[in-house]
Structure formats: structure tokens, C-alpha cells
Amino acid sequence: MKTEKLLLGAVFASVLAVASQSVFAHGGATGVVKERMDGMGVMKEAMKVLTPMMRGQVDYDTAVVRDRSEDISRHAGEALTKLFPKGSLDAPSEAKPEIWQDWEAFSTLADQLRVMADGLAEASENGLMMAGEAPAVGDMMGGQGGSMMGGSTIGTGVGANMMDLSQMPADGVFTMMGQVCSACHTRFRVEK
Ligand SMILES: [Cu+2]
To answer: CATH number, domain at 68?
Structure first.
């Protein structure tokens, strides 16, 4: 049928359009620059899914929160820093040379992001702090109710006042995680 052919053509054209769009979005990045842009893109996608959930604009889903946090974790820490070999600033990279002048700070932020993402995966079952009702019954596996804030242990732990992220409301951990993204971009990415 003629209409089917037309339809197929339209689908094919839009597939091409999407493909060329994403090439264009990276301005022809190649190699390690493209690799890290892709990794950042995965994290951006995760944030796009998580943000409305953390604001209570869409239904909270523990499994989605856990999966997307794991996506971020997989692209953080050493997985992130290894995609920034010294001096890799080929166009159209927006990375700043300061990365290698202050590698310590850069890699600390990358590690912090991983800690936050892992923490969010663990905190996914806690739901939102401001939720009008408790997390869905199915999310409270084994009926482990009780306080979300882990009592008075915050800030009193041995060592460097480590917060127990797994005991915090998910949106609290999410906010802190987002701050790590911003902190690193402010310092180490060229502003457009
Ligand atoms: Cu890009």
C-alpha cells in the first residue's frame, strides 16, 4: 500500500533526524571527549527522570530511583576521572584545563558523586521527606518502618562526621547529589 510506504519513509526520516541531532549536539566530538559526554548524558537523563519524582510531581517509584542512581554511580568516581586523561581538551570539549591543575579537587568531586549516587540507591526505600503519606506498602519490604532519620547518629560517627545517607529521605540525598554536579561544572566546565 502506498500509505504504508509513506509512513515507513517518515519513520526512517525521523530516525535519521534524531541520529544527526545527537551527532550535532556533540559538535563532532570523538574519542575520549565523546565518551565522557555520553557518560554525562546518561547522568543527565537520570536526573531528568528523578527530578519530577523528587518534587512529588510524578509517583515515587523505588525501583526507578534505585536504577537511575546506579546509572549515575556507574559513571561517577574512577569511571568519570579515567575519561579525563591529562590535557584532553579537543574541540568541542567544554572541560577546563584547571582539571589537571587541581586534579585532587576534581577527583574528589567525582568520588563524592559516586558516594551520593550509591547513597541514593540505598535511600531509595525511604521515600520523600515531605511525602503526605508513607511510601507505598510494597516499598516497605519486611515492614521495616520506624524513623527515617536514623535517630541522633548524624554527625556523631567515628571519623569524619559521615552522614549515613542510607538513613536519609531520598530527596535529601538527591539534592546533595545535584549539588555535586553543579559544584564540579561551576569549577571545571566552561560556561556557554
Ligand atoms: Cu557533547
So the answer is: 1.20.120.10
If you measure from the C-alpha of residue 40 to the centroid of ligand 1, how many angstroms do you get, rounded to a whole number? 8
Give the domain range for residue 40: 29-83+91-129+160-192
User: pTM of the predicted model, to two decimals?
Assistant: 0.79
CA of 181 to the centre of ligand 1 (A): 16
pLDDT in tens, 95-138: 999 999 999 999 999 999 999 999 999 999 999 997 544 444 44
Domain count, the chain: 1
Query: What separation in Å is there between the alpha carbon of 34 and the centre of ligand 1?
Result: 7
Cα of 25 vs centre of ligand 1, distance in Å, is 6
Listed residue (53, 75, 11, 21) closest to 173, CA to CA: 53
